[in-house]
Amino acid sequence: MVIIILLRISIIKISRMNLNNNMSYKKLILIILTLTIFSILYVIWFKKSDTATSGSAVEKQKFIDYKLYQVRLLSIFIPSDKESKEDRKHKKLLAEKYFSDIVNSKKFGKIFEINNKISQQNNNVKIFDLGWISQGKLPKNFDEKAFALKNVGEATMFETELGFHIVQLMNIRKSKDFNSVIHKKEETYKTTYQKRPYDNMIFIKGGSFWAGSTEAEIDMRLKLCNIYVGKHIGGCYRKWFEDEIYQYAEIQDLYIDKYEVSMGEYKKFISQTGHKQLPDWVYEYSPKDNYPVVGIDWYDANAYAKWAGKRLPTQFEWEYIARGKERRLFPWGNALPDGTRANYSDINDTNVWKDKSNNDGYKHTAPVGSYPKGQTPQGIFDMAGNVREWTSSVESGTDKAIVKGGSFSNAYDDLWCADYRINKKDTLEPNLGFRCVADIE
Predict the structure, then answer these.
(1) Which has the closest alpha carbon to 214: 361, 79, 385, 357?
(2) How far apart are CA 120 and CA 114, in angstroms?
(3) Cβ–Cβ contacts within 10 Å for residue 128, how many?
């Protein structure tokens, strides 16, 4: 509108001029140039102003700064058979009903009322607290939906290949230590020292699964703990296992080492790179080259993986490989541990929680691959027992990394695939080693 007014003024000025006069031509040109400059400046100013206003509006509508905040989420999960259209349709209608009840209810606790109904019906619908979650912690499609919620009490519904999900925003909290960096492979993994070998590696087809433990599984874990550990220490506590957060995860195709990295392989790495030597005490626990390497910290494990053209697995990759889509309790299945399936605290150990009914003949570590009955269906050895294994996953806001799998000094129940432990990155232990994965090129 302003530009049109300026143009009209210029036309009027021009019409009043005596165009036969040279001076009038000069004035005409000057007026046109002046009006053109003013018009351009006005347009630029207007656009900038408009952009600033829009940006301001966006800021006001913005949910939270994910670098400073975390959210707590409630979730209803309705599993469905993706091969059955009829089942999928039925489950979708059920999910839509629950979602409508939550949205139309003025009570924040509606989801808990639904939980009570579900528990009475005894069906396979799950309701659980996802705990405090940061952006980038969940799989991408789940993450995008959950973090689009703007206000406490707001809910969203979406579908994955596993079934139907309803997520409600329960709480928001500020966290000084929170670091909202999405888990990506570190830059060091992109530059390798040697060609990536797939010898003694197993291909794993990616997919979706639920990591962690359900409420019923935590109860089962607690019961196992009390069998051998609780009676010696005054009982086990449920809260010990509640960090095994039940959460959806997606895994890409990859290769994983069939065995834990051995002493011989690690010594070759030291020889070729000049990396620091292993502590002397290591040889008491892993005396020969075919035993798993121990006495290495998280930085050592990453350095080896880089040299080998591989990387450490994430906690979710490790758990997916150990338990599969079917969510086995132990790498071999749901049968309880014994001395033929894994190297854990048995009659040879000095810990009070040792299983006196088993004797595998090893006081400490065993040679890699010594327990064929304990391998996964894909043929991966020692994912439970022998040594715990470093992962690339770091506990948010700390200098600690997540380790998975039990060890020769751990109790019966620690062979549980969902077991969740964290160690300082510079930890050196006689029961802590690692294995590597490789991405599909």
Answers:
(1) 79
(2) 10
(3) 18
* Spatial CA neighbour of 245 closest among 49, 51, 73: 73
Residue 18: is its pLDDT beyond 80? no
Residue 152: Cβ within 10 Å count:
13
Q: Which two tokens stand for residue 64?
A: 């939270």
For residues 182 and 62, give the distance between their C-alpha atoms in angstroms, rounded to a whole number.
20
Q: Per residue in 141-152, pLDDT tens? A: 777 888 888 777
Which tops the pLDDT comparison, 177 or 163?
A: 163
Q: Within 105-164, where are the H helices?
A: 110-121, 140-146
Beta carbons of 428 and 297 less than 8 angstroms apart: yes
- Token pair of 167, please? 């997520």
Average pLDDT of the chain is 79
- Domains assigned to the chain: 69-174 (3.10.50.40), 187-439 (3.90.1580.10)
Alpha carbon of 222 to those of 77, 103, 128, 341, 406: distances in Å? Answer: 24, 36, 18, 21, 16
How far is the C-alpha of 51 from the C-alpha of 407, rounded, in Å?
59
Q: At 265, phi and psi to the nearest 5?
A: -65, -40
Please tell me the number of Cα atoms within 13 Å of 11 on its side-chain side: 6
CB 368 within 8 A of CB 382: yes
- Helix then strand then coil, in percent of the chain rounded to 5, is 35, 20, 45
CA distance 404 to 381: 14
Contact 349, 395 (CB under 8 A): no
**Pair of tokens at residue 85:** 């259209």
Distance CA(371)–CA(342), nearest Å, equals: 6
Separation between Cα atoms, residue 162 and residue 357, nearest integer Å = 40
Instruction: Report the C-alpha gap between 376 and 321 in whole angstroms.
Output: 8
Tell me how far apart the alpha carbons of residues 98 and 115 are, in angstroms, rounded to a whole number: 10
Percent of the chain scored above 70 by pLDDT? 75
Which is more confident, 35 or 187?
Answer: 35
Most distant pair of Cα atoms in the chain: their distance = 117
pLDDT tens digit sequence for 173-215: 765 444 333 333 333 333 445 556 678 999 999 998 889 888 8
Give dist(CA 204, CA 377) in Å, integer. Answer: 11
Q: How far apart are CA 86 and CA 89, in angstroms?
A: 5
From the DSSP assignment, how many helices (H) and strands (E) are in the chain? 11, 13
Opening angle at CA 157, ends 153 and 159, nearest 5: 155
Query: What's the whole-model pTM score?
Result: 0.61
